[in-house]
Amino acid sequence: MEKTSRDPAMTDVARLAGVSHQTVSRVLNNHPNVREQTRLRVKAAIKELDYRPNRAARALVTGKTQLIGVVAQNSTLYGPASLLSAFEEAAGAAGFAVSVGRVKVLDRDSIAAAVERHRDQRVAGIVVIAPNSSAADALADVPAGVPLVTVDGDPDRPTPLVTVDQAKGAFEATKHLIDAGHETVWHVSGPADWFDAAGRVQGWRAALDATSAEVPPVVAADWSAASGYRAGQMLARMPEVTAVFCSNDHLALGVLRAMSERGRRVPHDVSVVGFDDVPEAAYFIPPLTTVRPDFAAVAHETLGLLLEQVSDGETTRPQRTVAPMLVKRDSVAPPPR
Amino acid sequence: MEKTSRDPAMTDVARLAGVSHQTVSRVLNNHPNVREQTRLRVKAAIKELDYRPNRAARALVTGKTQLIGVVAQNSTLYGPASLLSAFEEAAGAAGFAVSVGRVKVLDRDSIAAAVERHRDQRVAGIVVIAPNSSAADALADVPAGVPLVTVDGDPDRPTPLVTVDQAKGAFEATKHLIDAGHETVWHVSGPADWFDAAGRVQGWRAALDATSAEVPPVVAADWSAASGYRAGQMLARMPEVTAVFCSNDHLALGVLRAMSERGRRVPHDVSVVGFDDVPEAAYFIPPLTTVRPDFAAVAHETLGLLLEQVSDGETTRPQRTVAPMLVKRDSVAPPPR
DNA sequence: CGACCTGGTGTTATCGCTAACATCACCGGC
DNA sequence: GCCGGTGATGTTAGCGATAACACCAGGTCG
Question: By the 8 A CB rule, do A288 and A225 touch?
Answer without folding.
Answer: no
